[in-house]
Design goal:
This protein is an alpha/beta fold. It folds into 2 domains: 160 residues, HUPs (Rossmann fold); 126 residues, Riboflavin kinase-like (Elongation Factor Tu (Ef-tu), domain 3), CATH 2.40.30. 32% of the residues lie in helices and 26% in strands.
């Protein structure tokens, strides 16, 4: 991600006078998948063409947590992670609006007037064809178009994006991630699925009985099915990158009862242990299994390492590091 990080604002009161004029898109954008990217790239292109700013309006928490808590989805990415990806796609400003009961009760016209026009100074709004907004989702693209004509902005509904004949959605990304279908998830996202978070203290078993690992506490709520994966690990603070192999699961060999995400680096650490890591999941090797002894598990880990090394030799030989 080489583009500049966008300016991020977390309430209407933070929005500066120079926020607009802008082109924007509106949504949750969890995962920032290929469908989201098509919208965002169109926003960035239109803004550059017209001399406006490229903006995104999103929400925190997910609106379902306020209006339908039992149906609220587990989140693929944090709002900061989404903003980082959006910046790489050309977005200059992100407004993360706190989603409250009061906001949910705004009529469609109140939402347009108070948020889009008065605060953001929108000149164009690009949304999916099934976009809904306002109290009880009373607004649709037709109403948004009428309000745009009234308040002086254009509206451009965008067709959904399909990958291999299937419509891309955040719910599909969640479903495939939870099933461990990492390659398919990569196609839906246009990049490798990753988890990021703090490195935390483990149980000390790996260092003494199997292999030493970095233990990740993810900052998000969706992770792949239990098992062993070829991964790539990055220290976001220093930029250091390592080939790696990771296990997600309950450590059944040691009768574990809590989820752990453990990563073994295939290359020397060469420096201080990172405080945070980002782990990209590239290939599923196998499911998690219980072994009779720690020695048996260590032997299997070394076989898994061999699989990972072959994987990296293969993709490096092709001149790329992708899935």
């Amino acid at each position: 991600m080489t583009a500049a990080r966008p300016r991020v604002f977390r309430s209407l009161s933070e929005v500066p006078r120079d926020f607009g004029p802008c082109a924007t898109t509106i949504g949750n954008f969890d995962g920032v998948h290929m469908g989201h990217q098509a919208l965002i790239k169109r926003v960035a292109s239109l803004a550059a063409e017209r001399g406006w700013k490229a903006a995104v309006l999103t929400f925190d928490p997910h609106p379902a947590k306020i209006v339908a808590p039992t149906r609220a989805p587990r989140l693929i990415m944090t709002t900061d992670q989404r903003a980082e990806v959006m910046g790489s796609l050309g977005i200059q400003e992100v407004l993360i609006l706190p989603f409250t009961r009061e906001l949910s009760e705004l009529s469609p016209e109140e939402f347009v007037r108070n948020v889009l026009v008065d605060a953001m100074q929108v000149r164009a709004v690009l949304v999916g064809e099934d976009f809904r907004f306002g109290h009880k989702q009373a607004g649709d693209t037709d109403l948004l178009t009428k309000l745009g004509a009234q308040y002086g902005f254009e509206v451009d509904p965008i067709d959904p994006v399909n990958v291999r004949g299937e419509r891309v959605s955040s719910s599909l990304v969640r479903q495939m991630t939870l099933a461990g279908r990492i390659n398919r998830v990569g196609r839906l996202l246009g990049r490798s699925f990753s988890l990021e978070g703090d490195v935390v203290r483990g149980h000390g078993i790996g260092r003494t009985q199997t292999v030493p690992t970095l233990n990740l506490k993810p900052s998000t709520e969706v992770w792949p099915e239990d098992g062993v994966y070829v991964t790539r690990t990055t220290d976001p603070d220093s930029g250091r990158v390592w080939q790696s192999i990771s296990n997600i699961g309950m450590r059944p060999t040691f009768d574990g009862h809590d989820l752990s995400i453990e990563t073994y680096l295939l290359e020397p650490l060469a420096g201080d242990s990172p405080a945070r890591i980002r782990v990209e999941f590239l290939w599923r090797v196998r499911g998690e299994r219980k072994f009779a002894t720690a020695a048996d598990l260590k032997a299997q880990i070394l076989r898994d390492v061999n699989v990972a090394q072959k994987y990296f030799r293969r993709i490096t030989g092709k001149g790329k590091m992708t899935t």
